[in-house]
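Item description
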Amino acid sequence: MLANDVVPGMGMPVAAPGLRAWGLAEGLRGLGHEVLLAVDAWAVGQAWRGAVPPPRPRGCVVLAPRQVSTLARTRGFDRLVITNSNHIDRIGDLGRCQLVYDFFAPKMLELAENVGRADQEAAMASLRERKLQALGRSSAIIVNGAKKLDYAREWAQLAGRAEVPMAVVNPGLPPLAPDPAPTDRLQIIVSGYLQPWSRPGAWVEAVLPLMDAGLVDLHLIVGEHWASRYDSARASDLIDRLATHPRAVRHGLLDFEDFRRLLSRCHVNVDVFERNPERELAMVTRSLVALSAGLPTMHVDFTEVSPWIAEHDAGWLVPEGDVTSVREILRSVAVDRSLLDAKRAGARSIAENITEPRVAAAPLDRLLRRGDETSA
């Protein structure tokens, strides 16, 4: 399993790509597979500032992607799972090891939203070439959420790989029991990296009057990813308006374990952002991390995560620009905390029945075993 970013257990803040690879690895191990998680050494070098190498979790190595093909051949691996196409031009002959392509995120749509990049057109052409190359080498394809299936099928057809086996494989995150803090004020949290494809929605204007009234405390964990090429001035202005409020606490970026402990102590996660084509296909990892910690989540109504929240009653779905709805929902649960009990149970249902690593990885397990039967 090749991870494009650092993973939990390395003592650093993590992002969606690293969590995706780590969650798949954890799920497959739980289903009886031997999994080596290889983390891109360049990414580790960008994220780690310590004088000695960072810690590594069980079954994890740090290496350059160009070393993966040699490792796969010499160790006799059956499959190499790659997250998107980032490193395909560095992956040489895999021998008998077969490539599995993970359609983790709609990268072309992400790049299309990054209008501030001077090299946007060239970057999109390069990404298209890499994606087609990776798909062309793949023996199977997994897709991070059912909503992206048509998108993935179109790309597979463009690469001449329409016949390749394909399965929806949701993210894997170990459940964490909620432990909400017994505070007078409602504890809400807003988290995530600043990205050009994820711009804040109505929650800023909705939360401020509730903070003024002393009904809520706001925990903010918002920052820039080490690989960001985004001018975040607009988003930073909005965040700064909130961060200076006496009822706000602005946390630094936390490692995964500390982040989830903080989530488990809060009462409501707010993840409301503007609509665009990328967000419509997004599997919003930060919301899933919150739900995996049993945290009721306020979310928009158009992502991969939205129907899960609705079906399991794990929070609230709101239009991205509806300040009144966001404010009044938060006001109601601030006044009557018992309204959160059913929502918390719904969040735990998602954590146990959808994103628990073995449950999430089960379709990939079936795909791998079916491939073994075919090649036997």
Observations:
- The CA atoms of residues 56 and 210 lie 42 Å apart.
